[in-house]
Write a structure and sequence with these properties.
Number of helices: 4
Number of strands: 6
Bound molecules: methionine sulfoxide
Helix content: 25-40%
Largest sheet: 6 strands, antiparallel
Structural class: alpha+beta
Radius of gyration: 14 Å
Oligomer: single chain
Distance between the termini: 24 Å
Amino acid sequence: MSELSLMTQQLDALLYDEQDQTANLANASALLMQTIADINWAGFYLYQSTNDELVLGPFQGKVACMHIKNGSGVCGHALQTKEVQRVANVHEFPGHIACDSDSNAEIVVPLYGKSGQAIGVMDLDSTTLDRFSIADEEQLIEFANVLIQHIDSH
Ligand code: SME
């Protein structure tokens, strides 16, 4: 395996021996926000199977919508397809949910546990069009994989 990025190493150290999911996600969102340049929102939506939807979790940024149906918007699409959604221009994404009208680009990484269960999604927004590169995507997937090791108790 290639060497982990500094941000992912910091995450691994930060969450060491902490079992509380809210605490872990809160600090993960803060780490993303303080490390990654030119983003205006970073955080998590958590999957609730009862209503088959995503519910707002720990985040940094402006207030956001609290419930997103599975399959809806960029977040719901990432959850449903289990594929990273790297969107250069959110205004061209069918069904995009505009929480912060300043956002122009978005990347959403689906979070699935070791047993294949849906945990939720990690979402980052930027006011800059085409902000997120393939290198950013790879780094965020790596970050999400380490995060899942800390929050997946199954
Ligand atoms: N734009 C997202 C909604 C969440 S906010 O960006 C924080 C979407 O379309 O799913």
